Amino acid sequence: MNLKKLKRKIQKLLFREQWSLLVCGPDGEALRQIVPPADRIWADPFPVESDGRILIFIEQQFYGSKGTLGYIELFGDLSHGPFCPVLEEPWHLSYPQVFRSNRHGSDEWYMVPESADCGQIRLYRAVSFPDRWEFVRELLPGAIAVDSTLFEHQGLWWLFTSQKTENTGFNSSLYAYSASVFDTDQWTPHRQNPVVTGLDNARMAGRVFRNGRGELIRPAQSCVREYGESLSLNRITALTQDAFQEEKTQTIKPERALHAVCTHTYNAASRYVIRDIKTRRFAPFHRLVPLFRGLIK
User: Fold this and answer.
1) What's the topology of domain 40-296?
2) How far apart, in whole angstroms, are the C-alpha atoms of residue 172 and residue 164?
3) Number of neighbouring beta carbons within 10 Å of residue 276
4) How does the average pLDDT of the chain come out, rounded?
5) Are 132 and 164 in contact (CB under 8 A)?
6) Per residue in 144-165, pLDDT tens?
7) Burial (CB count <10 Å: 0-12, 13-18, 19+), residue 70
8) Domain residue spans in the chain?
9) What is the pTM of this model?
């Protein structure tokens, strides 16, 4: 066992770690931390605005269980509603990338969650938004991938994803694919694939979006010392089927004042930016608590 893995085992044994949500203003200032109950994490926030409501789609995971997907509603005073489940599968789910499209002539909501445990990149459509979803199709057959992200740019749909192959890993690669529509399994691989490599800036950390100057921005996470240790915002300066270039414009680190040690998702809706942060607190007996609860029951 290498030193890095040994350190993580010791941390998990002696420290209690939990992912929670952080509501920020448009300039990044922290406004409100949303902490889930102590027996679970809330992570990978994808906020959307619909009919005047701000809904934050998230992964919920009880300790020792697989992740499921749902949402909480964010109110004007920055309080929030309960977790509302929307999708559970036999495998782990996370990173619920939700987006709207009128591809078939009507405004519909779609979602591409991370489902690497089942070996597929899966597209879902809302039967009744935001609560009911149905499987539509697999997008990239044969790809073992995480944090797959769809967006439209200059008449093409793009699929950015991190793949595990003989030569690349989830945390150190970014692959790009393009197609004329998003609900297809016929994607053209970028000629430079993988377009980004390295633990410091490859894996996706949220939607690709346009800033106030109309520039295309790709959020990415750093996994050099630890998975999801910090975020970067990267300006994409060239994106065609033949070329890809980007430059890092900002680094976002976890809020030490909140005991945060990691932050790995960045998405915006309305006037808010929603991130997740992982806190780590010394609690050497925290793994014994579930055992005592079981004995009491």
Assistant:
1) Tachylectin-2; Chain A (2.115.10)
2) 9
3) 28
4) 92
5) no
6) 999 999 999 999 999 999 999 9
7) buried
8) 40-296
9) 0.92
